[in-house]
């Protein structure tokens, strides 16, 4: 999984939500019996490798349900949203889709996806999965059109050798982070800290906002990032660039570590990529949770949802297959198949973290991210606001604005786009 895939998975379209909420749900397709033969088509967003991984879970299901066949096809992130939108509005296409966290709300609101509460899936899996993402995938009326399929989380990657030489421990707080940057610089490290996934973007700000005790919106979807916590977060984050010289140019985790960056904030999918892309880094790096802020730990969580299209003539069988993806057997098959292709697949099931093919420090960092993680907001207008909000944040990074007026302007943009 690359950065584009993870970012798209995290933030894909909520922009049609306002209109979708005013759209009545389309009549359900004529349903075949809830049991019996079915040929299901599953569009899996991501690479061909990821589709092959998911096919392993489909084949596992077919072994115990021989009258149900599931064909998994890769759906590119580049045009996947448009293709699923066309399927939803044209009522023709796959039975099952995976996609960005907001796709279920969008396409379900348009009448294109089944409310999985009717099939009992959220009730069956919610208590066992990462909790912070459920707000992102639950529509304002409580409908759940897609349940979490996989997760991507933020971690701190660090060079063990550089930190040991400078007698620095992996930072656990904001204060320790800036102190570590000073000590590493004094020890000759040119770039003590950098950010990969979401560099100079709202995604990285989101982490600091949560760590400061803030949020992008209130529970009733009023803009909230211009709170005192939002100002605290933005001032600290901007200082990492202005005062401590974190690069505004992005280098992915493997390259950054290989080029002498001591600490990098990046996505969990890079865990398997570091040693593969940079063999000379083997045994020289480790991971830790993101440092905690004044309110504690907090981090953005991305990933994909999976759901059933409303026109499917085999919705019950499709939903039953989705339920199977949360069984220990299916999770193991997916995790092992992904690992064989150099991908760390993180199931949303909290009990599975300890079984990941990862080192103890990586597992502990992922556990911390799960415990303190939040998905993107499910509020109308956020998708269309992201680019302009990021510009306002960057004005502070580049010294063109103070934090409070920049955030006030961002909040106004969010309010206007809410409709």
Examine the coordinates and then state which fold CATH places here, giving the name of the CATH topology of the largest domain.
Answer: D-Maltodextrin-Binding Protein, domain 2
Number of strands: 9
- Estimate percent helicity: 40-55%
Q: Which CATH-level-2 architecture of the largest domain? A: 3-Layer(aba) Sandwich
Largest sheet report: 9 strands, mixed
Taking pLDDT < 50 over at least 5 consecutive residues as the criterion, the unreliable ranges are 11-32
Mean pLDDT: 92
The termini sit apart by 35 Å
Overall morphology? globular
Number of continuous helical runs? 18
Query: Which class of secondary structure composition applies to the elements?
Result: alpha/beta
CA gyration radius, whole angstroms: 22 Å
CATH class of the largest domain: Alpha Beta
Tell me the series of helices and strands, N- to C-terminal. HHEHEHEHHHEHHEHHHEHEEHHHEHH
Considering the protein shown, what is the CATH homologous superfamily of the largest domain?
Answer: Periplasmic binding protein-like II
């Amino acid at each position: 999984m690359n950065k584009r895939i993870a970012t798209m998975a995290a933030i894909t379209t909520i922009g049609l939500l306002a209109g979708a909420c005013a759209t009545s749900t389309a009549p359900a397709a004529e349903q075949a019996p809830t049991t019996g033969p079915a040929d299901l088509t599953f569009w899996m967003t991501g690479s061909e490798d990821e589709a092959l991984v998911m096919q392993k879970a489909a084949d596992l299901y077919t072994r115990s349900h021989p009258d149900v066949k599931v064909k998994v096809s890769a759906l590119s992130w580049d045009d996947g949203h448009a293709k699923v939108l066309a399927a939803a509005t044209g009522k023709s296409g796959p039975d099952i889709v995976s996609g960005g966290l907001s796709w279920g709300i969008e396409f379900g609101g348009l009448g294109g996806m089944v409310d999985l509460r009717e099939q009992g899936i959220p009730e069956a899996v919610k208590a066992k999965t990462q909790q912070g993402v459920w707000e992102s995938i639950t529509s304002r009326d409580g409908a759940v059109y897609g349940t979490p399929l996989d997760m991507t989380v933020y971690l701190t990657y660090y060079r063990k050798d550089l930190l040991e030489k400078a007698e620095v421990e992996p930072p656990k707080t904001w204060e320790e982070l800036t102190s570590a940057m000073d000590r590493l610089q004094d020890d000759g490290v040119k770039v003590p800290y950098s950010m990969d996934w979401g560099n100079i973007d709202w995604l990285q700000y989101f982490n600091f906002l949560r760590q400061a005790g803030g949020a992008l919106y209130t529970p009733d979807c009023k803009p909230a990032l211009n709170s005192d916590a939002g100002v605290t977060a933005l001032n600290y984050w901007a200082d990492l660039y202005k005062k401590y010289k974190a690069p505004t140019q992005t280098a992915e985790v493997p390259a950054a570590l290989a080029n002498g960056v001591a600490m990098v904030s990046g996505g969990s999918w890079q865990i398997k990529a570091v040693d593969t892309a940079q063999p000379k880094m083997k045994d020289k790096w480790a991971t830790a949770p993101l440092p905690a802020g004044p309110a504690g730990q907090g981090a953005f969580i991305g990933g994909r949802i999976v759901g059933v299209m409303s026109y499917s003539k085999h919705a019950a069988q499709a939903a039953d297959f989705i339920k199977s993806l949360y069984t220990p057997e299916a999770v193991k098959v997916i995790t092992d198949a992904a690992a064989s292709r150099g991908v760390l697949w993180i199931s949303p099931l909290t009990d599975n973290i300890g079984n990941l093919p990862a080192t103890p420090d990586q597992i502990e960092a992922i556990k911390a991210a799960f415990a303190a993680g939040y998905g993107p907001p499910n509020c109308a207008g956020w998708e269309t606001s992201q680019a302009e909000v990021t510009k306002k944040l960057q004005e502070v990074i580049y010294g063109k604005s103070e934090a409070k007026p920049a955030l006030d302007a961002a909040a106004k943009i969010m309010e206007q786009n809410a409709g």
